[in-house]
TrEMBL record:
The lineage of its organism: Bacteria, Bacillati, Bacillota, Clostridia, Eubacteriales. CDD domains: cupin_QdtA-like. It is an enzyme of class 5 (isomerase). It comes from the Bacteria. This is TDP-4-oxo-6-deoxy-alpha-D-glucose-3, 4-oxoisomerase. InterPro entries: QdtA_cupin_dom (IPR008894), RmlC-like_jellyroll (IPR014710), RmlC_Cupin_sf (IPR011051). Keywords: Isomerase. Pfam families: FdtA (PF05523). The keyword Isomerase applies. Its EC number is 5.3.2.3.
Length: 135
């Protein structure tokens, strides 16, 4: 889907375990200004239901798995993150819904900017209006 892609990071495995390095503007297509993570999501909870006007993000499921529904005005895709060496890039004007977090799952998010509620589009009809200008 336009404006989303998977990013494969290095998975350095030795007898001591696995290590995945991530470097701003090297493995991630933007400068990382913010990091947050989502944990302890109860069964049946669906998060998201928004798009961003300008924000770029990469989502990485460090433990367990989570499903993500991605939408633009023309198409819809369902992806699952379950591997700490795989990131999901989501660019501007992509609607997202995250669900089926498994017990103990940890969803790490790297973001291109500081938190700004004004960058969120939380109304789906307004989202469609804005996104149709671009897609
Ligand atoms: C996204 C998906 C993947 C902050 O105060 N600072 C922050 O940096 C963030 C991300 C959130 N918040 C506050 C805003 C809300 O009061 O934390 C609360 C929960 O945020 P929200 O309902 O937006 O969480 P999600 O899981 O629906 O969405 C989050 C991100 O907000 C969003 O940018 O793309 O994860």
């Amino acid at each position: 889907m336009f404006n989303t892609t998977f990013i494969k990071f290095k998975d350095i495995k030795d007898k001591y375990g696995h290590l995945t390095p991530i470097e701003s503007k090297i493995n991630i297509p933007f400068e990382i200004k913010r990091v947050y993570y989502i944990t302890k999501v109860d069964d049946g909870v669906i998060r998201g239901f928004h798009a961003h006007k300008k924000l770029h993000q990469v989502l990485i499921c460090l433990n367990g798995s989570v499903k993500i529904k991605l939408k633009n005005p023309n198409s819809e895709e369902l992806v699952e993150l379950n591997e700490p060496s795989v990131g999901l890039y989501i660019g501007p004007l992509i609607w997202r819904e995250m669900f089926d977090f498994t017990e103990g799952s940890v969803l790490l998010v790297l973001a291109s900017d500081y938190y700004n509620e004004k960058d969120y589009i939380r109304n789906y009809d307004f989202y469609l209006e804005e996104a149709k200008k671009v897609f």
